[in-house]
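Before going further, learn to read the protein records used in this course. Taken together, the tokens spell out the fold as the letters spell out the chain. A record is reproduced here so that you can trace the correspondence yourselves:

***
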Amino acid sequence: MTENVKLSPAEIAQLRPDTRLVQGGILRSPFGETAEALYLTQGYVYDTAEQAEARFKGDDPGFIYTRYSNPTAAMFETRLALLEGAEVARATASGMAAVTAALLCQLKAGDHVVAARALFGSCRYVVEELLPRFGIASTLVDGTDFAAWKAAVRPETRVFFLESPTNPTLELVDIAAVAEISKAAGACLIVDNVFATPMLQSPLALGADVVVYSATKHIDGQGRCLAGVVLCSEKFLTDHLQTFLRQTGPSVSPFNAWVMLKGLETLPLRVERAQASAGTLADRLAALPGVSKVIYPWRADHPQHALARRQMRGGGTLVTFEVAGGKAGAFRFLNELKVVRISNNLGDAKSLITHPATTTHQRFTPEARAEMGISDGMVRLSVGLEHVDDLTDDVVRALKAV
């Protein structure tokens, strides 16, 4: 295989993001295929026993086993690293595999994690319930309270973990400010950047050490496959992540990696279109009867609007709002929608809506949900690629049932 023979990696890195997402990381076989090849293989053969030995010792950089690495996965990883501005990336089987690997690969019994309390339900599970099983303590804090981050630090604190914007309340955490606190504490800052996407926010540039994604969301963005990604430095990969991934095996399927690789080519177009519709829809929702609150980072009434404008390059593709009548009102509204479909997924070409209190965050007590700002009337709308007027008509009609 040969890399892109016209453009060197250094030249590709200087191209604009949209171009990097088409040209980056290409490995072509001697056949000279236009589309990236899908290498559905478990293992690889060696010319000699000496070559096999060199591969396993790390003296020969070739492939060994698809649980360790794969040419198709490598193209996806390289392309996303170019977009994110990361030294390296490693793909996993799902977003939660990426989150769990980024945490566990560097932690041991006796260590301590500080995390923002506003997290996706599965992420809260890992922090609150899984890590303590291995003797790793955790503290949850209000992500917007810098004093709380500082007060939570212990001598054994090793990791800070947050997502911004948060799921589902679209609360923002000042990544640069938390990064300063984490560095002073000697901790590694992991940022889940799913809601912002790599198109709209760059946590590494803001001081984060590691960025994680559920590539299932916007990166695929068409409801097809699962995948996750961890982006980090070469040192973090060598010291922590690579051995963990190699020995525990949360590897991405080559087919899924190929789907994600092709998804990256259209990511800027899809995010731009969905974001434009989300902004329009947020403004229209705010004027509708039956809607008591609209949350969208690019709106002037968002509590952290100034931070959003400073930290992000756009408001994103998700709109959260509260429907009158609590759970019953929200259910009546959801059940009347026809264009927008009920689903717990997001970042899709199709518009999807979720009732967090009974799905993604149902395992929490009412008190815990209230602490996170999740009410029974709250719904999370992931705006897709449909015409915004059709989405508006659908929402307006459904709200009449509230």
Notes: The mean pLDDT is 96. The first helix runs from residue 9 to 13. The CA atoms of residues 13 and 82 lie 6 Å apart.
